[in-house]
Amino acid sequence: MDLYVFATPYRITWDYYFSAREHTLKFDSWEEAAELEYVKEHGISVFLMPSGMLGTLLSLVDVLPLFSNTVWGQNANLAFLKTHMGASFEKRPKPWRTVVNPEDVHSGDFLVVSKIRGRWGGFETLEKWVTGAFAGHTAVCLKDDMGNLWVAESGHENEKGEEIIVVIPWDEWWELSLKDNSNPQIALLPLHPDIRAKFNSTAAWEYARSMSGKPYGYHNMIFSWIDTVADNYPPPLDAHLVISVMSMWTRVQPAYAANMWNEALNKRLGTEDLDLYRILEETERRGITFDQLLTIPEQDEWVYSDGKSTTCVAFILEMYKEAGVFGPLSNSIQVTEFTIRDAYMLKIFENNQTNLPSWCNNGDGRLPFCQILGEYWMELPFYNSLEPYANMNENCPSLPPIYDRPTRC
Asked: Which of the four CATH numbers 3.90.1720, 1.25.40, 1.10.3470, 2.30.30 does domain 71-217+309-373 have?
């Protein structure tokens, strides 16, 4: 028995067949006239679930546990990342928790977080898979004039359950991390002394305060991942499936759809307030395809209905721009095009292990950065290896398991 999914931007349906012969699927009516016109021009997207009904259900059994906040769920996440990304997840002799000395931490030092169980663990696993990042969240350290250590973060959950930008004391952030039931693995990536010397803390603080309380950057989250027409979608994903999922969510939760992609797609067209279906009509009128529209680079200066939109990593890198980390390249780099992998690959971090604080990694010298929490040894392939350049990360493929990228893509 084979299971097929049939989709247009206006609907998703499915059917299953027991025998190899000609079959007919009938649409009793069109959702609206625009759907008929779309089908006349582009046809209906057909997805074969190659393992049939049983295999598809078994595949769901592989994915659904990723979101379970149990040992079973954690093992499912580790197995998925090992299978699809080649991650090792070598277990430490015992879970590692260092005692961070704030005196050894400086403004601009980068924090990477990898959650491996529960709701956020499952979400991060899928994010890692499509982007090639071996971490799923980031934050940044700041010190005030009194020498107190703070953490600035986009994606902090407030008391209402909203994901916002905050600047909170280090002790508070660290305590929340220790209590986090997603079993986070956390590393501190100190800036290189030469970069730290030119880091403008005053400008960084001004930027952080100007963004504090604003929403997480959902508007442009998927666009840091999608740079190319075909080479950012691990099978069985493709642009047709993306538009079908967008359509489904638009039907179910219109406000969610507007927040996640409609505004960003309007920005790319130079239009305002078009819903997904009008966006499709406009791309058709202009003679471009929807998958081409998705690849148009995000611009840092774009302002959305609720302000500048920055994901966890874009927030930090925009701060770096303000603080002078990128120097004369600042105006030619769009940080909203960066994934977490793109960020930790930047050659801006400490490259001399002997300069790392004594409390890093228990003094064994195994890692080139400071892992400060975790049950497993963290790995960040190609860490600290890529010099910044103009138009960085605007046209990069990201296909697993190698995630190979051309020079200066």
From this structure: 3.90.1720
